[in-house]
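Page 47, continued from p. 46.
Same chain as before, 117 aa.
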Amino acid sequence: MKTDLPERTFALATRIVKLCQVLDATPGVGRTLSRQLLRPGTSMGANVEEGQASQSRADFVAKYSIACKEARETHYWLRLLAETEVIRADRLRPVTEECNELIAILTTIIKKSRANS
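Result:
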Protein backbone atom coordinates (compact mmCIF):
# COMPACT_ATOMS: atom_id res chain seq x y z
CA MET A 1 0.00 0.00 0.00
CA LYS A 2 1.37 3.39 -1.02
CA THR A 3 1.38 6.08 1.65
CA ASP A 4 1.97 9.79 1.50
CA LEU A 5 5.33 11.23 0.48
CA PRO A 6 6.72 12.03 3.96
CA GLU A 7 5.90 8.49 5.09
CA ARG A 8 7.44 6.94 1.96
CA THR A 9 10.66 8.93 2.25
CA PHE A 10 10.89 8.04 5.95
CA ALA A 11 10.34 4.36 5.14
CA LEU A 12 13.05 4.51 2.47
CA ALA A 13 15.44 6.19 4.92
CA THR A 14 14.76 3.40 7.40
CA ARG A 15 15.62 0.80 4.76
CA ILE A 16 18.78 2.71 3.84
CA VAL A 17 19.90 2.84 7.49
CA LYS A 18 19.39 -0.91 7.83
CA LEU A 19 21.26 -1.54 4.58
CA CYS A 20 24.14 0.64 5.77
CA GLN A 21 24.27 -1.27 9.05
CA VAL A 22 24.79 -4.47 7.05
CA LEU A 23 27.43 -2.82 4.86
CA ASP A 24 29.25 -1.43 7.91
CA ALA A 25 29.53 -4.89 9.45
CA THR A 26 32.25 -5.86 6.98
CA PRO A 27 35.44 -3.94 6.30
CA GLY A 28 36.41 -2.72 2.88
CA VAL A 29 34.59 -1.10 0.01
CA GLY A 30 31.11 -1.90 1.37
CA ARG A 31 31.81 0.16 4.47
CA THR A 32 33.08 3.07 2.38
CA LEU A 33 30.05 2.97 0.07
CA SER A 34 27.78 2.76 3.10
CA ARG A 35 28.99 6.15 4.25
CA GLN A 36 28.32 7.59 0.78
CA LEU A 37 24.78 6.16 0.71
CA LEU A 38 23.69 7.02 4.24
CA ARG A 39 23.73 10.81 3.93
CA PRO A 40 21.58 11.28 0.81
CA GLY A 41 19.39 8.30 1.69
CA THR A 42 18.31 9.94 4.92
CA SER A 43 18.51 13.58 3.82
CA MET A 44 15.82 13.10 1.18
CA GLY A 45 13.09 12.56 3.78
CA ALA A 46 14.38 15.33 6.02
CA ASN A 47 14.04 17.81 3.15
CA VAL A 48 10.53 16.59 2.33
CA GLU A 49 9.60 17.14 5.99
CA GLU A 50 11.08 20.64 5.89
CA GLY A 51 9.17 21.33 2.68
CA GLN A 52 5.93 20.40 4.44
CA ALA A 53 6.46 23.42 6.71
CA SER A 54 7.76 25.78 4.04
CA GLN A 55 7.07 29.47 4.37
CA SER A 56 6.52 30.13 0.67
CA ARG A 57 6.14 28.36 -2.64
CA ALA A 58 9.79 29.18 -3.43
CA ASP A 59 10.88 27.64 -0.11
CA PHE A 60 8.76 24.56 -0.85
CA VAL A 61 10.28 24.16 -4.32
CA ALA A 62 13.79 24.62 -2.91
CA LYS A 63 13.33 21.92 -0.25
CA TYR A 64 11.73 19.47 -2.67
CA SER A 65 14.46 20.17 -5.24
CA ILE A 66 17.09 19.26 -2.67
CA ALA A 67 15.12 16.12 -1.79
CA CYS A 68 15.03 15.17 -5.47
CA LYS A 69 18.79 15.66 -5.83
CA GLU A 70 19.36 13.50 -2.75
CA ALA A 71 17.06 10.84 -4.21
CA ARG A 72 19.08 10.83 -7.42
CA GLU A 73 22.33 10.48 -5.48
CA THR A 74 20.83 7.66 -3.42
CA HIS A 75 19.80 5.92 -6.63
CA TYR A 76 23.35 6.26 -7.95
CA TRP A 77 24.89 4.58 -4.88
CA LEU A 78 22.31 1.79 -4.96
CA ARG A 79 23.08 1.14 -8.61
CA LEU A 80 26.80 1.10 -7.88
CA LEU A 81 26.35 -1.38 -5.04
CA ALA A 82 24.38 -3.67 -7.35
CA GLU A 83 26.63 -3.31 -10.39
CA THR A 84 29.80 -4.02 -8.40
CA GLU A 85 28.08 -6.94 -6.69
CA VAL A 86 28.80 -5.62 -3.21
CA ILE A 87 25.16 -6.60 -2.67
CA ARG A 88 23.21 -8.77 -5.09
CA ALA A 89 21.10 -6.72 -7.48
CA ASP A 90 17.94 -8.71 -6.74
CA ARG A 91 18.23 -7.80 -3.05
CA LEU A 92 18.52 -4.10 -3.91
CA ARG A 93 15.80 -4.06 -6.58
CA PRO A 94 12.87 -3.14 -4.26
CA VAL A 95 14.69 -0.22 -2.64
CA THR A 96 16.07 0.94 -6.00
CA GLU A 97 12.59 0.86 -7.54
CA GLU A 98 11.14 2.82 -4.62
CA CYS A 99 13.89 5.38 -5.04
CA ASN A 100 13.02 5.67 -8.75
CA GLU A 101 9.36 6.20 -7.93
CA LEU A 102 10.22 8.90 -5.40
CA ILE A 103 12.38 10.69 -7.97
CA ALA A 104 9.44 10.69 -10.41
CA ILE A 105 7.01 11.94 -7.75
CA LEU A 106 9.34 14.69 -6.55
CA THR A 107 10.08 15.79 -10.13
CA THR A 108 6.36 16.04 -10.91
CA ILE A 109 5.63 18.00 -7.73
CA ILE A 110 8.47 20.43 -8.44
CA LYS A 111 7.37 21.00 -12.06
CA LYS A 112 3.75 21.57 -11.07
CA SER A 113 4.72 23.92 -8.23
CA ARG A 114 6.92 25.97 -10.54
CA ALA A 115 4.18 26.13 -13.18
CA ASN A 116 1.65 27.38 -10.61
CA SER A 117 3.85 30.19 -9.35
